[in-house]
Amino acid sequence: MPIITLPYDDLEQLTGTDKDTIIERIPMIGADIERIEEESIDIEFFPDRPDLYSVEGVARAIRGFLDIEPGFCEYEVKPYTIEITKDDSIDSVRPVFGCAVVRGVKFSSSAIKTLMDLQESLHWGLGRDRKKVSIGVHDLSKVQAPFRYIAADPDFSFVPLDFTEPMTMKEILEKHPKGTRFAHILDGFDKYPLILDANDNVLSFPPIINGTLTMVTEDTTDLLVDVTGLSNEVYTALNIVTTALAERGGQIEYVKVIGADGTENIPLDLSARTKILERAEIDGLIGMDLPVDEIVKQLNRMGFGAKELDDGRIEVQIPRYRADILDNSDIIEDIAVGYGFDKIPAVFPMNATVGKSHMLSDISSDMREIMTGLGYSQVMPFTLTSERVHFDWMCREKTDDVTYVMHPISEDQTMVRTTILPNLMEILSMNQHRELPQRIFEAGDVVISGKNGLHLAGVSINAQANFTEVRELVEALMRERLIEYEIVESEDPAFMEGRRADIIVDGKKIGVMGELFPQVIVNFGLGQPVVGFEIDLL
To answer: Per the annotation, where are the binding residues?
Structure first.
């Protein structure tokens, strides 16, 4: 989950209260305090609340929760004075486009850092590492409207951020640190996205890098915010960034986007979404009957607008920056958060039940007993991983059976694992300071083609590790499980040719074992031979 650094000076100024009160009360809105420093506090927020990825968003939530400024936060948006034309050539590359102007912002060095951190957090939280959403913020005083959003030839050149000499867009993808990191997003395209001003000055090369011309400094007051991408999360990110800047005293202004066919669009929408709550669903989910005025009060404390209708139902206004509100249950959860979970009485269930262990738990327990008896130590790595570790470092081809995380919070957690061995190799890599031999295992969940599975994997690292060691381990394991098996030559590229084997039971492949391929060992930064196995337990 994202950890946000909040400077005390900013927090106190934006909330109108002291830091001690904030530190005491902020865990009650669903945040975990990671560490408390002299000048700032680090707080971990759930990934479903991207509106809290900045000090401005946290301050807004705190003001409501402490009854300083409860209720729906309404932002004035002035009519447009700036236009951007959107060329139809961009529709096949990066079609979804949102933008707005914010004027009169007062920046300090910490405010600029907060804005940059918010951008990067949104790139992960909403944008899947910029693929679905990328954000640019520009000093409006350095460029001239009207602007154009086009697909440009890769040989077009400009001075990218953090550089002093012009580079072509192709060179940026090959040589600039941001370019090499995100070049894969534009693989297969013969033209690249570009935002230009009236004089052909470059504002942005989304989703890669901004131009150095429009870099935000402490002297910047007026900003153009552009958000490009592939999905409607573009507009959510635009709402979050513009309202965060408005919390700094900025005045939001619409921007008109003109399509190639002459159609006009205003992408910014900060009007409230409205949902209707029934009393029965509120009482049923919370587990107690709250008075209507109490429900309305708690909704206001959580940043919603709320009023009782004539028929007893409750109308709720939802801010556009609240990306986490998908249905009524999300709103009712916030009522409970505002009221306080500790105030909700505990009630024993009406039905008496007799529990027993699940079959999968029994299998896992048996495997743990066998493996520990064979001298292996159990580990419990994350089930989320990345394509880089899962496929590239294991020298395996990417497969189509992967389940990806919709809103990953870091580049290390973009998918659910389909095998366990990469996780065990990572643990060996992180424990090189410990003496050898190291022998670890896990019996844990995998997800293949959207279905849960249960695998057992183990690895051993030591100077004498070889195929015989892992063959004896698998033989002992299968003997303890009373399972007849055979081995055949394997083609798994994660293992060395001639020192690898597939494990076959009743004519079906259930696993693989062998000596890890030298390049795999190098990819994980290890310097000793490694053997391992993995089998499907179901």
So the answer is: 324, 330, 333-334
